[in-house]
């Protein structure tokens, strides 16, 4: 298991679909090539943004293979790991390793949401995968409202100590919870990378201690986000705040209520920007209504990203 350098922006990429809701492989290659050209060296596929929960085992593996091919010798691929059981998770993790993935994003299982007396279940699930598959693991601290689970300090400490654990994506969407996790990780002897998953306070995450970002919004305004991270790192806070004023209002528009539509909004934004030809999402996800499409367009215009782009009509 090689070391992963995740102190960067890691977009959780969308998955281009055809009109009959199949993976559009040529469009996926073109889109991933565009992401790579923005200066990205690590991407997360098969995550929630990429409709991973709605893909078959074979489809998830194919997505990894295509991403590995596009980023060959220039980047690393992390894949979201969703499963209904530990046995299935191990099988999917083995698929990911064979397909060339460098790491796993450990999505919480539905059973993890019951906190009381459940910590042994959560730990043993992660330990079983770590023992079975030699891949780096990105732990995932995700708010229950988004289908995740938030772990106690004691459980997080134990998970961090697993040999495969290399990073933690903190996506509580709560500043207080985030700062508590920052303090916890600083107190643990084993050092892992803290990734913000908080699309609602991206720039502030870096001021508070994030070392990288794994974001569903990371596939939009990519260069601006990379520049914002760089500005914080060199302590050019005036420039960081300037970029924040571009990035955050657009992120807020993509993650507006109902949050479940953020995947369709992200695809529509990429279509309007000319990155994708279509914005199809696989049911049970639904396409945006016209009023929502117009809101996405207006958000892109306010961010100054549509000035030179002629709009396309979605099919």
Q: Oligomeric status of the shown chains?
A: single chain
Portion of residues in beta strands equals 5-15%
In the predicted model, the low-confidence regions spanning at least 5 consecutive residues are 308-315
Compute the gyration radius: what is it? 18 Å
- The CATH superfamily of the domain at 9-222 is Aldolase class I
Query: Tally the helices: what do you get?
Result: 11
Q: Class of the domain at 9-222, according to the CATH hierarchy?
A: Alpha Beta
The CA-CA distance between the termini, in Å, is 43 Å
Please tell me the overall pLDDT.
94
CATH fold group of the domain at 9-222: TIM Barrel
Can you list the strand order of the major beta sheet? 1-8-7-6-5-4-3-2
The tally of beta strands, per DSSP, is: 8
Q: What class do helices, strands and sheet pairing give?
A: alpha/beta
Furnish the topology, listing elements before pairings:
Blueprint: E1 9-11, H1 25-37, E2 42-45, H2 57-70, E3 76-81, H3 86-99, E4 103-106, H4 119-132, E5 136-142, H5 153-160, E6 165-171, H6 175-187, E7 193-196, H7 202-208, E8 212-215, H8 222-233, H9 237-254, H10 262-272, H11 290-302
Parallel strand pairs: 1-8, 2-3, 3-4, 4-5, 5-6, 6-7, 7-8
Helix pairs in contact: 1-2, 2-3, 3-4, 8-9, 9-11, 10-11
